[in-house]
Amino acid sequence: MKKLIIASVLSAALVPTAAFAQANNFDGFGLQLSTGYQSNKLKFDDLSGDGTPLSQLGFSLPTISSGGMPLNLGASYTAALSDRFTLGALVEYNPLSMKIGSSNSVVPATSTAFSYTGKLENQVSISLVPGYSFNDTTMGYARVGWINATAKATLSDGGSFSSNVNGLILGLGAKHLFTKNIYGFAEATYATYGSADATANTQATALKVDMTPTSYSFLVGIGYKF
After folding, report:
1. Are the C-beta atoms of residues 72 and 94 closer than 8 Å to each other?
2. CA atoms of 142 and 170, how far apart (whole Å)
3. 89 pairs with which residues across the strands?
């Protein structure tokens, strides 16, 4: 009877430890690389020339959008909070210049047509990453954090807009451990940025506009956990 009681106490003490080890499998620092598809959109508002609102003259820059393949480099740290839940932090950077399409517009006063192209550069984000471990090798997670980028629009006459924009990034994903150190993951993210003023000196006038980018991504990646 005494041996049975001792065995029961030891079992009760070891169960939480074994369960906690499930979340501990994802503990530690990690470096990762991801790519996939990213769709970007750039909206233009409050366009003015030499201080005069050009919307009164029927002149505007239509919203442009396009998709491309990003290259996200990330560094992370994850800690187990309980037997199932984890909390992590992720810093991510995309060194590629992401195109945001092109469009055409016409200056009503002169009937002059011109084109313009957009792009999003130097995307960097810092996110909190709460997670839930389904078993020893697979977890699901969410992302919420801050994102920053440079939005640019280049006009066919040589003028260009450029502005630094900040925003919010949200995401959902899943991670799987192939070995103790190597993992793969898939995630979907959405980034919404605040608008920012930008000016461009063209051949005809000094233009000013508010630029507001948004983007969403579907990514797959691989990483190494230390």
Report:
1. yes
2. 8
3. 77, 128
Q: How many residues does the chain have?
A: 226
Q: If 0-12 CB within 10 Å is exposed, 13-18 middle and 19+ buried, where does residue 65 land? A: middle
Rounded to whole angstroms, what are the CA distances from 148 to 8, 51, 167?
55, 28, 6
Tokens representing 163 are 């502005």
Q: How far apart are CA 104 and CA 176, in angstroms?
A: 45
**Looking at the domain that runs over 2-225, which CATH code has it been given?**
2.40.160.20
Tell whether the model's pLDDT for residue 131 goes beyond 50: yes
Please say if the pLDDT value at position 85 is more than 60.
Answer: yes
Which residues, in sequence order, are CB contacts of 75 under 8 Å at separation 6+?
Answer: 29, 30, 31, 32, 90, 91
pTM: 0.83
> In terms of C-beta density within 10 A (0-12 exposed, 13-18 middle, 19 or more buried), how is residue 51 classed?
exposed
Q: CA–CA separation, 69 vs 108, rounded Å?
A: 37
Give every CB contact of residue 206 below 8 A, 6+ residues apart in sequence: 49, 50, 199, 200
CA angle 35, 67, 147 (to 5 degrees): 65
> How does pLDDT run across 7-46, given as a tens digit for each residue?
443 344 334 444 456 778 999 999 999 999 999 999 988 7
